Amino acid sequence: MSNSPLCCMRQISPNRNSPRNHEFDTLTPHCAVGQMSIQALCNEFSRPSKGASCNYGIGYDGSRGTVVDEADRSWCSSSAANDNRAITIECASDAFWPYAINANVWKSLVELCADTCKRNGKTKVLWLGSKEATLAYSHKPGEVVLSAHRWFDNKSCPGDYIYNRLGQIAKEVNQKLGGAPAEPFKAYQGQVNADDGLNCRTAPVNGRVLKVYTDGTVVTITKEDGCWGYTGEGWVCLDYINKIASAKDPAAKEESIMDGKQFKKMYDDINPTYNTLEEVPDYWRDDIRELVEKGIISGVGGGKLGLTHSECKAAVLAKRIAEKLK
Ligand SMILES: [Zn+2]
């Protein structure tokens, strides 16, 4: 069995049995009871004293990690029989009822389930609605069933939010499995969104780090493998790339990107802030001076007027209207 290329990290837990003793035919999503990052999830489930693990984890931002290889049995669902046949997935969730997962985690979970089925020759996911029906079911070729931790222990896992939506999860995974073939890949540009920089590797997940792109760097993704993209220099995790546009003309597109700072500067150019009377354009200065002297405009403290161009215009207009109507 292979592992999912959708994962951006891999931190293998000692809490496992190698190899699993049953073919994969079950998916068991869990709620991690906390909006944890993928790093925190991987740390938690790879601590030897934890005595528990999962095949995959999904952090609150949708990032995925491998904790136990698919070929091995995780210690996740309080049932050796279940975990030997299941791929188990711990999802970052609220720490309180109904243990909801956010939209990023939902999307990542559906993608991960579909990817796991595809790589293992599975074509259909079933939600049979109960423990009895599920355990009594004989799989037809290509079928996978969904199961729940709460069936095997006195726990609420995977939480009512996920449990009540297992039918919807099956439906969305099946749409991906039976869906129209993907459109041909088109290169596109993306901007690195990672405060500490983004590793560029020789291969997805485990490749050697070739370089680090600084935050804000624009790269052109020319091919994809799961959640990894190739930049022409190496592979980066697409969880940290904000897609910009299709890359017909990379040079022109690069100039069109505006970050927050640039936007603020442009906005300030259009609508500058005046902090002294001298800075106010001379055609409004006398009116603004009068309004200040009469205490109608009091400034923003520290002797600063703090009036934007458009605020000056509104104030002068109001003053002139008042004068006209006197
Ligand atoms: Zn669980």
Structural notes for this entry:
- This protein has helices at residues 38-45, 80-85, 103-119, 131-136, 159-163, 166-178, 250-256, 260-270, 282-293, 309-324; strands at residues 9-10, 16-17, 26-31, 56-58, 64-66, 73-74, 86-91, 124-126, 143-146, 188-192, 198-201, 209-213, 218-221, 223-225, 228-230, 235-237, 241-246, 273-274, 307-308.
- It has three domains: 9-178, Lysozyme-like; 188-257, SH3 Domains (SH3 type barrels); 263-324.
- Helix content is 31%, strand content 21%.
- The strands form six sheets. Strands 1-5-4-7-3-9-8 form a seven-stranded mixed beta sheet. A three-stranded antiparallel beta sheet has the order 13-10-17, with helices on one face. Strands 14-15-16 form a three-stranded antiparallel beta sheet, with no helix packed on it.
- It contains ten helices and 19 strands.
- The longest helix is centred in the middle third of the chain and has 17 residues, at 103-119.
- The chain is of the alpha/beta class and 326 residues long.
- Helix 3 crosses helix 6 (166-178) and helix 9 packs across helix 10 (309-324).
- The structure holds zinc ion (ZN).
- Residues 30, 149, 157 line the site of zinc ion (ZN).
Topology overview:
Elements: E1 9-10, E2 16-17, E3 26-31, H1 38-45, E4 56-58, E5 64-66, E6 73-74, H2 80-85, E7 86-91, H3 103-119, E8 124-126, H4 131-136, E9 143-146, H5 159-163, H6 166-178, E10 188-192, E11 198-201, E12 209-213, E13 218-221, E14 223-225, E15 228-230, E16 235-237, E17 241-246, H7 250-256, H8 260-270, E18 273-274, H9 282-293, E19 307-308, H10 309-324
The site of zinc ion (ZN) has 3 residues, from loops.
